[in-house]
Amino acid sequence: MKFLAIDTSASRLTVVAVNGETAVKYTGDECAQRHSVELMPQIENALERAHMRADECDFFACVVGPGSFTGIRIGIATVKGLCLALGKPALAITSFETLAYAETGKRLALVGAGHGNYYACAYGEHGEEIAPAFLSGEQTQVLVNEGYTPLCADGTYPTAHTADVAEGLLRAATAKSKTGFSGALEALYLRKSSAEEKR
């Protein structure tokens, strides 16, 4: 299996390149609004370290959210461009899946949504997904009290386990690619952007 997967939904850029048994994982420092500047050089670097060309990939994957509205669009546009240019399929992965693959059992994948709120998705004992939602801190705590282990990548939830997003992206892309590819890449937004809310 050969693929390239990217995550531009968070403040840290993540790129994974897999060439058979070789897996190259990159997670950068916080790059704020510089995803568009850093993404292509890091893709080229990851492919080179994996001894692989882009046209050798079986598919391209990207995280479609929730997370940074601008970051998500950058990732989707990049992967759509690669797929179109090279005639390869695309695989959509959610931010929640990159977190959930870090652990087993009852877990709660959390992405900070600002002002003490969270994008959240709970997973049952056997990995069954409970519908993603936009939750307040109080609503999130209710689920934690019910025995769900909180997982996040950026420390936004005080008692959460810190997940390795690059490893989660690798595992999610590997697992999901075995179940088939469905439809076009579409952003997963659980609420309106700040600009839309202020209109």
Task: Please describe what this structure looks like.
- With 199 residues, the chain is of the alpha/beta class.
- It has 6 helices and 10 strands.
- The longest helix has 18 residues.
- 33% of the residues lie in helices and 30% in strands.
- The strands form 2 sheets. It has a 5-stranded mixed beta sheet with strand order 3-2-1-4-5, sandwiched between helices. The protein has a 5-stranded mixed beta sheet with strand order 8-7-6-9-10.
- The termini are far apart.
- The chain has 2 domains: 128 residues, Nucleotidyltransferase, domain 5; 60 residues, Nucleotidyltransferase, domain 5, CATH 3.30.420.
- The model has no long low-confidence stretch (mean pLDDT 91).
Provide keyphrases for this structure.
globular; Nucleotidyltransferase, domain 5; alpha/beta; 2 domains; 5-stranded mixed β-sheet; 6 helices
Topology:
Elements: E1 2-7, E2 12-19, E3 22-30, H1 35-49, E4 59-63, H2 69-86, E5 90-93, H3 95-100, E6 107-114, E7 117-123, E8 129-135, H4 137-145, E9 149-152, E10 161-162, H5 165-177, H6 194-197
Parallel strand pairs: 1-4, 4-5, 6-9, 9-10
Antiparallel strand pairs: 1-2, 2-3, 6-7, 7-8
Which structural class is indicated by helix and strand composition? alpha/beta
CATH superfamily of the largest domain: ATPase, nucleotide binding domain
Outline the low-pLDDT stretches. Answer: none
- Number of helical stretches of at least 4 residues: 6
CATH C-level name of the largest domain: Alpha Beta
Strand content: 25-35%
Helical fraction = 25-40%
CA-based gyration radius: 16 Å
Judging by the overall fold, what is the CATH architecture of the largest domain?
Answer: 2-Layer Sandwich
Number of strands: 10
Spatial order of the strands forming the largest sheet: 3-2-1-4-5
Mean pLDDT: 91
What is the fold-level CATH name, i.e. the topology of the largest domain?
Answer: Nucleotidyltransferase, domain 5
- Give the overall shape, derived from the CA principal axes: globular
For the biggest sheet, the summary is: 5 strands, mixed
SSE ordering: EEEHEHEHEEEHEEHH
| Cα end-to-end separation | 46 Å
* Total tally of structural domains: 2
